[in-house]
Amino acid sequence: MSENYKKELEIATEAALKAGDFLKNWAAPLEEEWKGKINPVTKADKTSEKLLIEKMKEAFPNDIIISEETNPLEEAEVINKRRWYLDPLDGTVNFMKGSPYWCIAIALVDSDNKTVCSVVYAPKMNNLFTAIRGKGAWLNGEKISVSQVEDLNRAVAASGFPYSFEDPEKSNLREWSNVTPEVLTVRSLGAAAMALCDVARGRLDFFWEQELERWDITAAALICKEAGAKVTDIYGQEFEGPETSVLAANPLLHNKVLEVLYKKA
User: Residue 156 carries which DSSP code?
Assistant: First the structure.
């Protein structure tokens, strides 16, 4: 790996491992709160976030930290500044239900608003995904790459749904209806960062979702891109930093998926 951002990646990895090991051994009763109708937060989320923030602030006291529970700064407040995006527990419902499909995600964005290094750690699966911009993506120290599936009818896809269905244009129901008949299968896995990492390693052929938060996808989007995926917003616009919608696919499929997502009935 490049010396550039090596220290940052090491510290982020240490932070993710510390928080992940804490969550993996969580034994206390979960005290649930609900930020919305289908958007829970637990004491585990908040404790994990506290551990991450303490570690990152100690190592990089001048950096801005954007975090899901206690410091969800608007993008306009941090534009053109070096900052970290933390998701202390992506997949809270999975965590609550005892499913292993959850993770911690950490990403560094530079003053040019580009994601430069990231970590996604899935403690229950013992999977540590890392990436440095321009240097590839790695899973437990082994380089990973996207699938080579080129036919939609052989593609395994994943997506999800927003926290609110009030706006039918952003419910993702139309997109599910468009995609499902065209592919082998579509899965809703409950953790966007994990699903993106599954695209990066070739277990999924593409993932799309809208109405996400920046900390949900910033880390994993870089891992996807460094593994060879074409990563855009859901309308096909490429991005290099924080976003709130994503379509990540192997390059053989990306344009085909985009056409299907928005085909007219």
Answer: E
Q: Residue 238 to residues 124, 221, 254: CA-CA distances in angstroms? A: 32, 11, 12
- In order along its 265 residues, the chain shows pLDDT tens digits of 345 899 999 999 999 999 999 999 885 546 656 555 545 667 888 899 999 999 999 999 999 999 977 888 999 999 999 999 999 999 988 998 899 999 999 999 999 999 999 999 999 999 999 999 999 999 999 999 999 999 999 999 999 987 666 776 777 889 999 999 999 999 999 999 999 999 999 999 999 999 899 999 999 999 999 999 999 999 999 999 999 999 999 999 999 999 999 875 4
Residue 125 per-residue DSSP state: G
Q: Is 224 helix (H, G, I), strand (E, B) or coil?
A: helix
All domains in the chain, ordered by first residue: 6-143 (3.30.540.10), 152-261 (3.40.190.80)
Q: Which residue in this structure is represented by tokens 């938060």?
A: 213
**What are the binding residues for Mg(2+)?**
68, 87, 89-90, 216
pTM of the model: 0.92
Binding residues: 68, 87, 89-90, 216
User: For residue 208, what is the DSSP state?
Assistant: E
Buried/exposed code over 83-113 (b: 16+ C-beta within 10 A; e: otherwise): bbbbbbbbbbebbeeeebbbbbbbbbbbeeb
How far apart, in whole angstroms, are the C-alpha atoms of residue 192 and residue 243? 13
